[in-house]
Write a structure and sequence with these properties.
Layout: H1 2-7, H2 11-17, E1 21-22, E2 29-30, H3 33-44, E3 48-49, E4 56-57, H4 60-71
């Protein structure tokens, strides 16, 4: 029930509620569910590599943004 109510709270109310998700791997705490989910994916080690330099990313969108901003062309996602 508490989690259901949490889903209806505004961002400000969530910050005040103290409800946090804790990473079982490293112990880091998150108030935001999306940030927690992104953090867990980072522990899983999935990487998207730039085909033009040695840089890697946890998210496809991060790679896309990098290739356009740094290399100035549309990315080739592997």
């Amino acid at each position: 029930m508490e989690r259901h109510l949490y889903s209806h709270m505004s961002a400000e109310e969530k910050d005040k509620s103290g409800l946090k998700k804790r990473c079982a791997t490293c112990g880091r705490e998150f108030k935001d569910k999306k940030a927690y989910a992104a953090h867990i994916l980072a522990h899983k080690g999935q990487q998207f590599a730039c085909d033009q330099c040695p840089k890697t990313f946890h998210w496809k969108q991060g790679l896309r943004r990098h290739v356009v901003n740094v290399h100035g062309k549309p990315p080739k996602i592997r």
